[in-house]
C-alpha cells in the first residue's frame, strides 16, 4: 500500500498486541488437546505438561525442560537450583524488566548492576567483569528484543572468575548462538510464555531449560513445594520427601495444550516477525526524530535473531507515544526506569548517572506493534504517523 493511501484510509486501531488470528488458526488442534486434558481429569502438572516439556526440549535441543507457572518463577527456581545462597551476588544488566533483578532477591541473593551495550541493549561484558566481586556467584545476561547478548565474551568472563553463567532467555525462544539455543550456554536458562511472547500461552506460563540433570531435577522439585516425588539418580534415597523449601509453580495443562498447538506454527511466526521488522526498518529509514532502528550486532559466529519486539530510539519519546495513542496505535515503553533506580532497590545505593547507556535507553526507546497477526497496512500507517509527528504534518 502506498504511504499516502495508508494515511487516507479510515483510522483502524492498531493494538500493540493481539493473537486473535493466530488462535483461530491453531484452535482445532488446541481444542483437541484441551478435550484430552478434560477427559483425563488432571488439569495441572499432568500429562499435557509432560508432553509439552518433551516436545519443546527436542525442538530447542535441550536435555531438559521444566514447565512452571511463569517466566519469573522460572528465574527464581533456576537460581535456587544452581545453589544461590543468602549474600551471593548476581550481576545483571541495569536495563531490563524488573523480574531480572527481583528474581535474584526472591532466590535469596543480591543483584549487582552493570551497564549495557548501545546496540544490543544487553549487559556489556567489560562492565560485567568490572562488577564481579568475591561474593559473585553468577552472571545473568538478559537477551532482549531481537538478539542474544555477547555469550562468547560473557562465557570468558564467567570462566575467568569461576562463576556461573545463567541466562535470562525469557524472550529468546528461537534465538541461537553458533547453532546452540539461547539458555543452554551455561548452567541453564528460562523461557516465558506470557501471551505477548513469540510463543505465548493464554496466561502465565514459563520453563527452566538446561542440559544439567541435577539442576533440572532440583527445579522440578522446587516447583512442587520441594517434593521430589520419586527416587532420582542425582538424589539417592529420596522418595516422595520434601527436602527443600519450595514453591507452588506448576504449569497448567490448559496452557500446555495451547502451547503445543502454537508450537506447530512457531517457525512461520518467527519468519513473519522478521518480515514485519524489515518493513519497519525500510519505512523508517531517514525519518527525522528516529535516532536508531534495531542494529543486529555481528558476533563473529552464526546467530539467529528473533524479533520479539521492534524497538526504536526516538526523540520526544513520550510525546510520540501519546501521538500514536491518539491515532489508535498501541506502543510500549521498555523500560521507563532503569533497574538501579527502581525504588525497591534503593537500599543498594546506586545513583543516577552511574549507568549512562542504560539510562539513555530508558529515556528514548519505544516498542512499536509487531506480532504475526499485524497486517502490512498497519506497519505503513504506524510509520506514516511517526513520520508525520516529526515533520509536523498532521494525519
From TrEMBL:
Q: Which SUPFAM superfamilies match?
A: PLP-dependent transferases
What is the superkingdom listed in this entry's lineage?
A: Bacteria
**Which Gene Ontology molecular-function terms are recorded?**
transaminase activity
Q: Keyword set for this entry?
A: Aminotransferase, Pyridoxal phosphate, Transferase
Q: InterPro entries in the record, alphabetically?
A: DegT/StrS_aminotransferase, PyrdxlP-dep_Trfase, PyrdxlP-dep_Trfase_major, PyrdxlP-dep_Trfase_small
Q: Which family does it belong to?
A: Belongs to the DegT/DnrJ/EryC1 family.
PANTHER family (alphabetical): 3-OXO-GLUCOSE-6-PHOSPHATE:GLUTAMATE AMINOTRANSFERASE, TRANSAMINASE
Q: What is this protein called?
A: DegT/DnrJ/EryC1/StrS family aminotransferase
Native organism:
Actinokineospora soli
> What is the phylogenetic placement of the source species in the record?
Bacteria, Bacillati, Actinomycetota, Actinomycetes, Pseudonocardiales
Amino acid at each position: 500500500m502506498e504511504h499516502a493511501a495508508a494515511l487516507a484510509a479510515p483510522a483502524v486501531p492498531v493494538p500493540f498486541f493481539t493473537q486473535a488470528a493466530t488462535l483461530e488458526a491453531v484452535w482445532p488442534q488446541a481444542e483437541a488437546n484441551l478435550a484430552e486434558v478434560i477427559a483425563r481429569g488432571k488439569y495441572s502438572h499432568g500429562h499435557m505438561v509432560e508432553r509439552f516439556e518433551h516436545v519443546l526440549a527436542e525442538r530447542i535441543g535441550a536435555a531438559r525442560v521444566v514447565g512452571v507457572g511463569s517466566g519469573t518463577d522460572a528465574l527464581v527456581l533456576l537460581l535456587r537450583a544452581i545453589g544461590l545462597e543468602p549474600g551471593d551476588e548476581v550481576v545483571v544488566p541495569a536495563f531490563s524488566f524488573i523480574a531480572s533483578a527481583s528474581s535474584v532477591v526472591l532466590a535469596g541473593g543480591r543483584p549487582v548492576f552493570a551497564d549495557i551495550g548501545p546496540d544490543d541493549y544487553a549487559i556489556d561484558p567489560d562492565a560485567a567483569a568490572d562488577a564481579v566481586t568475591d561474593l559473585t556467584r553468577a552472571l545473568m545476561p538478559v537477551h532482549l528484543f531481537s538478539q542474544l547478548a555477547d555469550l562468547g565474551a560473557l562465557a570468558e568472563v564467567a570462566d575467568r572468575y569461576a562463576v556461573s553463567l545463567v541466562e535470562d532467555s525469557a524472550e529468546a525462544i528461537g534465538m541461537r548462538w553458533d547453532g546452540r539455543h539461547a539458555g543452554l550456554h551455561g548452567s541453564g536458562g528460562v523461557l516465558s510464555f506470557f501471551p505477548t511472547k513469540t510463543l505465548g500461552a493464554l496466561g502465565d506460563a514459563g520453563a527452566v531449560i538446561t542440559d544439567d540433570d541435577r539442576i533440572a531435577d532440583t527445579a522440578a522439585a522446587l516447583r512442587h513445594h520441594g517434593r521430589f516425588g520419586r527416587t532420582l539418580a542425582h538424589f539417592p534415597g529420596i522418595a516422595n520427601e520434601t527436602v527443600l523449601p519450595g514453591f507452588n509453580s506448576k504449569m497448567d495443562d490448559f496452557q500446555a495444550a495451547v502451547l503445543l498447538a502454537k508450537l506447530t506454527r512457531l517457525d512461520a511466526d518467527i519468519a513473519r516477525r522478521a518480515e514485519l521488522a524489515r518493513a519497519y526498518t525500510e519505512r523508517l529509514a531517514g525519518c527525522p526524530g528516529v535516532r536508531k532502528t534495531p542494529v543486529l550486532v555481528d558476533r563473529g559466529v552464526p546467530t539467529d535473531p528473533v524479533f520479539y519486539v521492534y524497538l526504536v530510539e526516538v526523540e520526544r519519546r513520550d510525546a510520540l507515544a501519546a501521538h500514536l495513542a491518539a491515532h489508535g496505535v498501541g506502543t510500549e515503553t521498555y523500560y521507563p526506569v532503569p533497574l538501579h533506580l527502581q525504588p525497591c532497590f534503593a537500599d543498594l545505593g546506586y545513583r543516577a548517572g552511574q549507568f549512562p547507556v542504560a539510562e539513555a535507553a530508558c529515556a528514548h526507546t519505544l516498542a512499536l506493534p509487531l506480532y504475526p497477526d499485524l497486517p502490512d497496512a498497519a506497519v505503513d500507517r504506524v510509520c506514516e504517523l511517526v513520520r508525520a509527528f516529526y515533520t509536523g504534518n498532521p494525519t
